[in-house]
Specification:
Layout: H1 6-13, H2 18-42, H3 52-88, H4 95-105, H5 107-119, H6 121-143
Helix pairs in contact: 2-3, 2-4, 2-5, 3-4, 3-6, 4-6, 5-6
Length: 151
């Protein structure tokens, strides 16, 4: 497994908190384009009767925020688990630093999740758990790049 280099981790960690949020938001918007098309083509019931502009409003204000918040929530949970590991390992890290690193490490999992959603929802659920495990492994390895707390 290819792990990020120490210098790259420190460089990404210097970014302001808005940058990872924007990065993940743009990545999620990119992933949602094929989902938008598939949902519009395969919609049933009341949603199927909506015109394209109304469906776009529905997608933008209902589907996308729920999707984005669920991804941000999973990232927050992963960062919290890694933060606990960092505290147990007595490393000099804050939750905010780990959340930023989680956001940048989530690139492959987010793109893979979007692609797996297009194939099958069961595959997407499996991909989500594999992605969480992947993030935990990568980030737990990364916390050991940082120095121990001075006593």
């Amino acid at each position: 497994m290819l792990l990020p280099k120490k210098q790259i981790v420190f460089q990404l960690n210097r970014e302001r908190i808005g940058v990872p949020f924007l990065y993940v938001g743009l990545l999620l918007a990119l992933v949602c384009i094929p989902l938008f098309i598939e949902l519009y083509m395969n919609s049933e019931g009341v949603v199927a009767d909506l015109a394209l502009p109304m469906f776009a409003v529905y997608f933008l204000f209902i589907y996308f925020p729920i999707f984005a918040l669920s991804i941000y929530g999973i990232m927050a949970a992963v960062a919290a688990i890694v933060f606990t590991c960092a505290k147990l390992a007595d490393r000099k890290l804050t939750y905010l630093m780990l959340y930023k690193l989680t956001a940048f490490a989530s690139t492959i999992p987010i793109i893979g999740y979007g692609l797996s959603l297009l194939v099958d929802e069961k595959l997407a659920r499996l991909w989500m758990w594999v992605s969480v495990f992947y993030l935990l492994v990568i980030l737990i390895r990364v916390i050991f790049y940082f120095p121990k707390k001075k006593r």
